[in-house]
User: Fold these one by one.
Assistant:
Number 1:
Amino acid sequence: MPAYLAPLIVILAFVAFLSFSLVRLYQVEQDMRSNVSDNMLWVITQAQVASHRLDEAVNRRVLGDEAARPGLRFDVFTSRLVLLDEGPQQRYLERLGFAGDITTHSIS
């Protein structure tokens, strides 16, 4: 058995796995494009969950829990608001009439 055969088999396996991953990524992207409402619902839900986690972390810190990390929760929440205030999410919210509410309440 030649010495280059084992590395060649490993390389071919990695190429196959990479190809499979790219195909699945493409399929997921197409699915997200066709299910815009579901995608937007997920993004909005994530923002709502982040706001609840921020509220919980602030309350825990006020009660003396040193392990609470409201700064981290604040960063996550603001990133969710920025996501809603840009790109397709903003256009979707504009069509629903809520884009102004997000822009007004976004933290700069």
Note: The two ends are 64 Å apart (CA to CA).
Number 2:
Amino acid sequence: MTLSSTERGLRGGLLTPVAPWRRLALGREITFCLGPDVTPVDAMARGVAFARRTLPMLLKGSPAEQAISEDAISVVRELVDITARRRHSTDILGRIVADGAHLTVSVGEAQGPLPRPDVEPGLYLVRRLVDDIGQYRGDEGGYVTWASVPV
């Protein structure tokens, strides 16, 4: 966090300093929302375009930035596709969080648990690219799917 000269002058008692762990957390997450009028094909294209533009900020300085980015984009594409075709709520909410060891991609909310990979072939690709995958119940009562892409 950077303070202007005016803010530094006010800091003497009025502004509390930000803890070091909090500074590291800032900017380590990106979120996107796709509205109800977006078709599954458009949802995939928009999710991928957003990830392609923003992942470099999360992966800056990573030795394998390009390869990790492509893996994460493939995971975003498949999870958005599955969620968009089995949509539970009006909007699709996607989130990518970087913790240093993984990029956690989550997309929701879908109706019901994930289908088997033989029903959704894109899950074969996702399972090959990630360390772990799972689901939890979202705020709207649907299922949010998350996948952990190694960095």
Note: Strands lie at 29-34, 92-98, 102-110, 132-137, 143-150.
Number 3:
Amino acid sequence: MTDGADTGVRKQGQERVELRIGLVGTHTRRDDLEALDIWLRNAPVLEDALERGEVALVRADSPTQSEAMGGELIQDIILVVSAEMARSVAENAWRSVETWLRNRRRFAGPEEAPRVTLDGPPQGPGAGLSRDTDDDAHGGDDEPGEV
């Protein structure tokens, strides 16, 4: 599915925001991405919104294909949500990502350094929602209105 695909979340006159969740630093990236996708779909804080159609969770080709091996396309998880719900969904999804990552790191090999990022759009609604598990300070939790 491409980034511009109609996910059914958008209502007439309602702007949507795409929050991209990327995963790097593991030897089993495809399996880990699938596990994270399932984890997010079953997260109690997102499950109801997914069932009501307020949030869509899809996979799309990653804009950074540098990790592609053997021609395999790298994918990211995309949360598509209304602009009004973007901050709340990003915070809830991020808490679920952090829990999943703590569990994944327990099983990581010594040469693995699992890392997850959440990126909102660079400007407009949803800007400033980016998070990175490598950020120790405050996880990119900008105040509303900061870009």
Note: The longest strand covers residues 16-24.
